[in-house]
Amino acid sequence: MSLETPQHSTRSDHRSPTTNEEPIEMDLKTLGWNSFFHQHFEPYREQGLLPARVSSQHREAYRICCAEGELIASVPARFRDGIESPVDFPTVGDWVAVQIPGDTDPASICAVLPRQSKFARRAAGDYDVEQLIAVNVDVLFLVNGLDGDFNIRRIERYVALAWDSGSNPVVLLNKADLCDDVEARIEQVEAIAIGLSFLPVSAETGDGLDEMMAYLPTGTTAALVGSSGVGKSSIVNRLLGKQHLAVNAVREDDHRGRHTTSHRELLVIPGGGLIIDTPGMRELRMWGDDTGLQEVFGDVEELASTCRFGDCTHQHEPGCAVQAAITRTELDPGRLHSYLSMKREFTRLARKRKPKEGRMNKEEKRRDMRRSRHATRSRLGTEREEGER
Ligand code: GDP
Ligand code: ZN
């Protein structure tokens, strides 16, 4: 079970809700409950529903945590019918309003509360579909290895996407024990964006993990995101003080008769906050608007604003201030390349999404759901693939 801590014992049976408000509030706070969710929960409280947090997601059911402990919950048809897009389904980290009917029936998820933060990417495949990576997260640890896999351009991409997520991004530089010149790497990371937080750690030696825990007081939620192999599971295991993921990785049959390992799980760190481990990602395609781009590439955009031509592509035009900075070795051509490709992605995304603004008609909605279902199916495949090592 994922939420086994001294403060929060877990059960999988179903009991009728308690009427004692005090301890409920305390437990919920440990699970990340705050005034934002409290406020959005009001109408559901009046309906006699209870707040719960989704800790893991399975094919047909969810594991949720509430004042009652840990329960299995399903999404009833009446909720499913009202859903316009797959991102409206509950996901790990979500706060939901549930009905707990009795001793034997599973709980029903009646609503998903608004998300306080959301880290999403464009789903794999040709479809214009959003894929949620982590929601309701206070701190987003962008995990990277300080070993041979270190790639400053990849970090840049994560930061650009994370900037607008509503959570606080922290670049976690793992495997510090394998790096001869951590300072040089830090300098590279510092150059990405002004005020960007970073932290060198080692899941191997435990160095830096106390500093990491400083971001995670009780009641706060963090997520670990990054490529496969950067050490996310090792860090989580180290924080939990046991080989949790290896033991508890959830295996279930998918419809093709193969096995899926779901790595996305909300866990309570003993004496601290909560952490969501996410499947390793091979590709991080841009989603949302380009706010992050302005933050991460402020220097490039400033140079670009002084090019001779307003529509300069910064490749070969005369009077290009960006190319001039590259010639003076003040700007890394790799950084410009990164910037231009992310900008292209955002531009394409904005163009594609435009017709969808406003209310979709019935046929558009059906088409959107069809595409999304397809993308979700391929996502489940991708997640298994990306999660595998
Ligand atoms: P994940 O795919 O991000 O969850 O990565 P894992 O936690 O599975 O780690 C991938 C590999 O890197 C494993 O062989 C780990 O033992 C190793 N590893 C993880 N963290 C560290 C570290 O801080 N130092 C060293 N030397 N190896 C590490
Ligand atoms: Zn230019």
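^ zinc ion complex. The CA atoms of residues 210 and 239 lie 9 Å apart. Confidence is low (pLDDT under 50) at residues 1-26, 245-262, 376-385.
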